[in-house]
Design brief:
The complex is a heterodimer of chains A (about 130) and B (about 375). Chain A has about 130 residues and is mostly beta strands. Chain A has 2 domains: about 50 residues; about 80 residues, OB fold (Dihydrolipoamide Acetyltransferase, E2P). Helix content of chain A is about 10%, strand content about 40%. Chain A has 2 helices and 8 strands; from the N terminus they run ααββββββββ. In chain A, the strands form 2 sheets. A 5-stranded antiparallel beta sheet of chain A has the order 6-5-4-7-8. A 3-stranded antiparallel beta sheet of chain A has the order 2-1-3. Chain A is globular and about 45 Å long. In chain A, about 35% of the residues are buried. Chain B is α/β, with parallel strands linked by helices and about 375 residues long. Chain B folds into 2 domains: about 130 residues, 3-Layer(aba) Sandwich (Peroxisomal Thiolase, Chain A, domain 1), CATH 3.40.47.10; about 220 residues, Peroxisomal Thiolase, Chain A, domain 1. In chain B, strand 10 and strand 11 form a beta hairpin. In chain B, helix 4 crosses helix 14. Chain B is globular. The chains are: A mainly beta (about 130), B alpha/beta (about 375). The interface between A and B is medium-sized, with 34 and 36 residues.
């Protein structure tokens, strides 16, 4: 699915939720990049994302892509964190997809996202779980 | 800048074409378009193809396919912008002639999608999403459009039934198109009873996996008049190309397809036209919600009015602005790289009065809108009879 080098390269954003704060306009970029899309700034400070947020929109994948066939139905959401940063993540521990809704409070937790067969790389990252309002 | 005319068009059958290879599918469309145009040599060949590598294990198409036509030596370029690859191939051909770099260009699009299984095809299509921030988590294209649909429904009150009406209309149109992949009578009830793919989108909200190719021949208006043989001369009056963040997380607005709006505005400006001038349109209905959002972004309807417009029949063959008379991606099929070129073929047929049972009476100005991924890119062309 993904090469070990790629998985390793993405550890900072994936494992530690490391982001970049633009020194000119304060925008927070996740994952970090070389130029701020808001102001064109090129200087950044390292920051770590907060873990609390809410669901902006969501779906439940019933027909998965290769690599996720053992994980359906697979709820996925676009989450907006308390600092305004948005990211796409799976929603974990969902017993009844009908209870999901826009605006639902969630918290990011470190989880296993996918795995490359019996002996391949295990991909870890963050998933959203329902938080009390 | 020189005006550019469309002088030849062709599409292959669209469908699961097990017996046909990528190269022969492509050559069939290319040869038929050259025959229709009445030319046997061109200055350039452009090829729109999203992912022949993942779908068939073959790259380097520009040389491979030019040689397949017996034209090795002719300049050729493959271009890629996911599902907007075909529209981009049109844009590149248009620009070469407009700039005086070429007199006659063969513009083509192709995708051979059924040489891999369903999960591999879903994966290949999924590479048009942001692989690091979206694909990693297992999201699919139906999933991304499902998220956009949910936002649109919440913001504007677009209903599940209105989404279904897009499929009903396009399948009804597809019944009149012998090249269409599916000749099905679809009802709102059958859409709502079809399998869930990514809530709230169901199987009949989705365009299918398709093999197919399409081709058009472009040239100068002067040469087009010489070759017209009594047929109306169709000219590309406007061409608009735009991008947006691929990643939904990076978009400020999720209820609008910004790349489509920008590409549309650029094409309208170049053509000196407005949305009200358009008689017929082919838009990128990869999912039912995509057609509703595209008709809003193109200015045919106010934001939020796309759903009610379908319900009122404003986009049907007899409506105020007929959308997807060919059956659209939904019914005609969606060989991703070919789609943008196939849309040009349909509009050209409509403007020439050669669309048969689905002909829009008096259509003189038409628009084709092609889109990549979940709206990360879009190409719009406006054509007129001169």
């Amino acid at each position: 699915m993904f090469s070990p080098a790629r998985v390793w390269r993405e550890f900072p954003q994936r494992y530690r939720l490391e982001a970049a704060k633009c020194e000119s306009c304060g925008a927070i970029l996740y994952p970090p990049r070389l130029v701020c899309p808001s102001c064109g700034g090129r200087s950044f400070t390292d920051v770590v994302l907060p873990r609390d947020g809410k669901v902006v929109t969501y779906t439940v994948i019933r027909v998965p892509p290769a690599g996720f066939t053992e994980q359906t139905p697979l709820p996925i959401a676009l989450v907006e964190l308390v600092n305004g940063v948005r990211l796409m993540v799976q929603i974990a521990d969902v017993e009844d997809p009908e209870t999901l809704e826009i605006g639902m409070p969630v918290r990011l937790e470190f989880r296993r996202v996918a795995w490359d067969g019996e002996a391949g790389v295990i991909f870890y990252g963050h998933k959203a779980v329902r938080a009390s309002a | 800048m020189r005006d550019v005319a469309i002088i030849g068009t062709a599409v292959t059958s669209f469908g699961e074409l097990w017996e046909t290879s990528l190269r022969s599918l492509w050559a069939e469309a290319a040869l038929a378009a050259l025959t229709d145009a009445g030319v046997d040599s061109v200055d350039l060949i452009t090829i729109g193809c999203m992912s022949s590598g993942l779908f068939t294990g073959q790259e380097h198409l520009a040389s491979l396919l030019t040689d397949e036509l017996g034209m090795a030596g002719v300049p050729a370029a493959r271009v890629e912008s996911a599902c907007a690859s075909g529209g981009l191939a049109v844009r590149v051909g248009f620009a070469e002639i407009a700039a005086g770099l070429a007199e006659t260009v063969l513009v083509t699009g192709v995708e051979k999608m059924t040489d891999v299984d369903g999960a591999a095809a879903t994966y290949a299509l999924g590479t048009a999403a942001d692989s690091e921030t979206e694909g990693f988590h297992g999201v699919t294209f139906p999933g991304l459009y499902a998220m956009l649909a949910r936002i649109h429904m919440q913001r504007y009150g677009t209903t599940r039934e209105q989404l279904a009406q897009v499929a009903v209309k396009n399948h009804a149109n597809g019944l009149l198109n012998r090249h269409a992949q599916y000749h099905l009578n679809v009802t709102v009830e059958s859409v709502l009873a079809s399998t869930l793919v990514a809530d709230p989108l169901r199987l009949l909200d989705c365009s299918p996996v398709t093999d197919g190719a399409a081709a058009i021949v472009l040239t100068t208006v002067e040469r087009a008049r010489e070759l017209a043989a009594g047929r109306p001369v169709v000219v590309i009056k406007g061409s608009g190309l735009a991008t947006d963040s691929i990643s939904l997380a990076n978009r400020r607005e999720l209820a609008e397809l910004r790349a489509v709006r920008l590409a549309g505005e650029r094409a309208y400006t170049m053509a000196g036209r407005s949305p009200d001038d358009i008689h017929v349109a082919e838009v990128h209905d990869c999912f039912t919600i995509a057609e509703i959002m595209a008709t809003e972004a193109l200015g045919f309807f106010e934001p939020g009015s796309g759903g009610p417009a379908v319900e009122k029949g404003l986009t049907s063959l007899e409506g105020r602005i007929p959308v997807n008379p060919s059956g659209g991606l939904k019914s005609k099929g969606h060989p991703v790289g070919a789609t943008g070129v196939a849309q040009m073929v349909e509009i050209t047929k409509q403007l020439r009065g050669e669309a048969g049972q689905r002909q829009i009476e008096g259509a003189k100005i038409g628009l084709a809108q092609n889109m990549g991924g979940s709206g990360g890119s879009s190409v719009v062309h406006i054509m007129e009879v001169v």
